[in-house]
Design goal:
Keywords: Signal. This protein has 189 residues and is mainly β. It has one helix and twelve strands.
Length: 189
């Protein structure tokens, strides 16, 4: 009976994420940003500024079915000394049938999962870091927060690892742009 309750809760959470990720209104005027990294590689792309809020709709567009590397995308605050915190979306190696959404703490390899959705579903994610070090991440209407000691953002990045992803409604935009669109070369640094 507990397993059924957990399954129902996961289904409800996935439905909430999908419902909040549904397109409302017309087409989004911002050009999508694509990033791709082969298995085991990590591609960071600096964002235009270190705003207090990072947001995007992320969609997995291709994955190398790898038994070692989990396709991962994220919106992360740079906290100095190469530490990062924010929100990540990934396909777990041990169960590659869905996307997990997690809160990434500085100094950790794997984010703390707080939501799950279908593998092919776009997911609206957000990361907010306030002046008191409170990091709040969201996937649709589901949120998770943690207080980080001494956390002051010195920058922000989007990241891809071991897969291909599309970021729509990205705020702030990547640093390098050409004629209002994203520079594909900037995602391979």
């Amino acid at each position: 009976m507990l397993a059924r309750a957990r399954s129902a809760a996961r289904t409800a959470a996935a439905a909430a994420i999908l419902a909040s990720s549904a397109t409302a209104g017309g087409a989004d005027p911002a050009a999508p940003f694509h990033c791709e990294a082969p298995g085991g590689d990590y591609t960071p792309t600096p964002l235009a500024d270190a705003r207090r809020t990072l947001a995007a709709r992320i969609r997995l567009t291709a994955t190398e079915r790898d038994r070692t590397w989990a396709p991962t995308a994220g919106l992360l605050f740079v906290l100095g000394d190469k530490r990062h915190a924010g929100v990540q979306v990934y396909v777990p190696v041990e169960r590659p049938d869905g996307l997990l959404i997690g809160l990434r703490r500085p100094g950790t390899d794997r984010p703390e999962v707080f939501a799950r959705t279908a593998l092919n579903a776009p997911v609206d994610v957000e990361a907010r870091l306030d002046d008191n070090g409170l990091l709040t991440v969201a996937a649709g209407t589901i949120t998770k927060s943690v207080r980080l000691k001494g956390a002051a953002a010195t920058g922000a990045i989007l990241m891809c690892s071991s897969g291909a992803f599309t970021f729509e409604r990205l705020s702030p935009p990547p640093e390098a742009t050409i004629d209002g669109g994203t520079d594909p070369a900037s995602s391979t640094d």
